[in-house]
Amino acid sequence: DGVVVSEKVESNNLDVKVTESELETEEKGVEEESTREPESNILDVSSDYPREKHISIQRHLADLEKLADLKEDEKKPCPLCPEEKFKACYSHKLHRHLQNLHWKVSVEFEGYRMCICHLPCRPVKPNLVGDQTFSKMGAHYHCIICSATITRRTDMIGHINRHVNKGETESRFITVPAPKSSHEVLKESATDVQVLPNYSTPQKTDSYFNPKMKLNRQLIFCALAVLAEERKPIECLDAFGATGIMGLQWAKHLRSAVKVTINDCNENSVTMIQENCHLNKMKVKLNTKEEDNDEAMGDGEENTDTIEVTKMDANVIMHLRSFDFIHLDPFGTSVNYLDSAFRNVRNLGIVSLTSTDISSLYAKAQHVALRHYGCNIVRTEYYKELAARIVIAAVTRAAARCNKGIEVLLAVALEHFVLVVVRVLRGPSPADDSAKKIRYLIHCQWCEERIFQKEGNMVEENPYQQLPCDCHGSMPGKTAVVLGPLWSGALFNTGFLRRMLFEAVQYGLDEVQPLLKTLVCEAECTTSKHFSTHSPYDESKQEECGVYIKTPNTSAESYLLHGKRKSDEVIRSAAKRQKSENTAEHPAFYYNIHRHSIKGMNMPKLNKFLNYLSEAGYRVSRTHFDPMGVRTNAPLAQFKTILMKYSTPTYAGGQAEAPVHLTEDIQAGEQVQATADVKAEDAEFPEDDKSAVAAAVFAKGYPTHCAAE
After folding, report:
1. In the chain, where does the domain assigned CATH 3.30.56.70 lie?
2. 394, 373 Cβ separation under 8 angstroms
């Protein structure tokens, strides 16, 4: 019930009638409704601005200054502050006051600015101090859409965003030009999705859609397409649907090979998913309860174009039902859903998860990584691969708790996400084998050499002896840290990646093909010039996880149906395959060529450097984790020696060249055997004490600028 209160507000010598009505309080009780009915002869505002609005809502700073009627020789009060808070002053001071105290802290919406208001529009609760804090507590904003008055700026922004999410953009006081449609339609991979205007901010919208994750969605689609070739039809789950873009792409391209279920716990997202299904001419089978109460939409018949949409918690639906393919893409870490994912996933099925908590995985928030993953990590040059191995270790532990093992098919760590795709192997023996591959890593903080700890439970007297470098013996104090526990096995399955590349070509996914080619080279630890584009269905690639995969070139007799026990022949072939794969497994981690470059020297081109390492007898490849990274089984000392051998001086001069050749000589004497031509070059330069110290410091891992000091 409204109560009309007549007050005198001294602003431009104007009399204003203020109507205050207290309505419902939103959330924390910071929003109250109040309406104003200004008299017809009160405000003299520009003609393009409606008179019904509050005076604190303006388009431009000049409009706000017009209210003050600034004049150089006269003192004028602030139109948005009471006299006891801000006394009348000259124009230059009032201009700064309006700009800094009102305009800069305003909230923008549809071209309007809601400035902060200090007028007694909002009732203040009485306190012990009384009127002394009235001016501080009375600061508030007036909502341009409704009549609410809100004290905090962050609350005001959230209040406006809630109006936008609900489609409420028309004001009770002014006519705000509303957009033609509250939904925007985006297209990706021949799939249309409609999203809300603020779809790119996950904390402010129910239908989050990130266009930068297109590569991630294409990788997952290729993995699902490979699984669909093995057995049909497969039941797949998108546990966090949001807009439903991923599940729609699965159903639209794979059709009868998949039965797609899109789940989300948010009601608005479920509604958005249904609308997107109809937009793509897909039928919807709705299931919003944890029971089997299905409500069919469309014709009500299940066919190849039917998508099941559920409204449940992701843990609940994965506990209730079994799937062949599960994808987890929550906002942040996915460790809270791993136990449910492996509880009912079918044997030889695939679980893929996208982790976007890169601040903890990339060692920017190390305490969060310890809390979520139970891993101790530091920032290293190979931090992206470290993040992938952290996630796989968490996946392995969750699968082992359900008596299941895993085989890693794919691990990708890019700027915005870490994607891990694993195949599930049911049984305690695969679970034990997978759990044994979780180890700790010893990392030298001087030269960044690293090695996994040896298997066994016996305490080693000097764990520094496991490191190939001798930094502990030549440097003071403790030089290494123990990181982990981490996954120590392979990160890629070459056969699966080749079939993913084949599917990417089949479906015309051009963006993901270069990445898949890099992954295949990285899995085989070969350079791109040795990359072969032969058919992915070779005899050596038909078998994965101890079973034969059904492909166009294989007979039906070699394909084992789902759920059947493996024969003795398959078990023997699986043992041979695992033995051969262990010998050809790609090396763990990589070295950054810039991190180990020599000051004052020009490095060789990366591809040429890869050839130099290959000619020296080492396995070598580039890595997708780092564009300047080199994955090789060469020790760091030999890596530095070859890099130094083929580097050229930046400028000619004995002072620059002498320390470099001495460094090479010291490394040759202490760590590796140098070639004869390098030793001949070293003999040409006399040894200098200062240069020798600098070279020795560099050889032990100190930064080069310390050597000069």
Report:
1. 591-649
2. yes
Of the candidates 642, 704, 647, 703, the residue with the CA atom closest to the CA atom of residue 675: 642
Right CATH number for 591-649 from 3.40.50.1100, 3.30.56.70, 1.10.3720.10, 3.40.228.10? Answer: 3.30.56.70
Give the CA distances from residue 176 to residues 109, 160, 179, 189, 369, in Å, rounded to whole numbers and listed in that order.
10, 13, 9, 36, 46
pLDDT recorded at residue 457: 78
* CA 404 to chain CA mean position, Å: 27
Q: What is the C-alpha end-to-end distance of the chain, expressed in Å? A: 79
* Burial class of residue 180 in the structure, from the number of CB atoms within 10 Å of its CB (0-12 exposed, 13-18 middle, 19+ buried): exposed
**pLDDT tens for residues 512-562?**
999 999 999 999 998 876 666 554 444 344 445 444 444 444 333 333 334
Q: Kindly give the pairing relationship between strand 234-238 and strand 325-328.
A: parallel
45, 85, 138, 527, 656 from 55: Cα distances, Å = 9, 18, 16, 68, 70
Q: At what angle do helices 636-645 and 654-670 cross, to 10 degrees?
A: 150
Looking at residue 14, what is its pLDDT?
33
Helix (H) / strand (E) element for 438: namely strand 438-444
Q: Which residues of 563-595 are buried (b: 16+ CB within 10 A; e: fewer)?
A: eeeeeeebeebbeeeeeeeeeeebebbbbbbee
Residue bearing the bigger pLDDT, 10 or 123: 123
Residue 268, both tokens:
């608005």
Using a CB cutoff of 8 Å and minimum separation of 24, what contacts does 312-320 make?
312/263, 312/265, 312/288, 313/265, 314/239, 314/240, 314/263, 314/265, 314/340, 315/340, 316/290, 317/237, 317/239, 317/261, 317/263, 318/237, 318/239, 318/343, 318/344, 319/343, 319/344, 320/290, 320/344
| pTM recorded for the entire structure | 0.65
Structure tokens at 200: 């790119």
Q: What is the pLDDT of residue 258?
A: 95
Q: Is the pLDDT of residue 383 over 90?
A: yes
The contacts of residue 331 (CB under 8 Å, 6+ apart) are 202, 203, 208, 240, 356
Kind of pairing, strands 32-33 and 148-150? antiparallel
Residue 367 and residue 357: Cα distance in Å, rounded? 13
Q: Are β-strands 543-544 and 547-548 bridged in parallel, bridged antiparallel, or unpaired? A: antiparallel
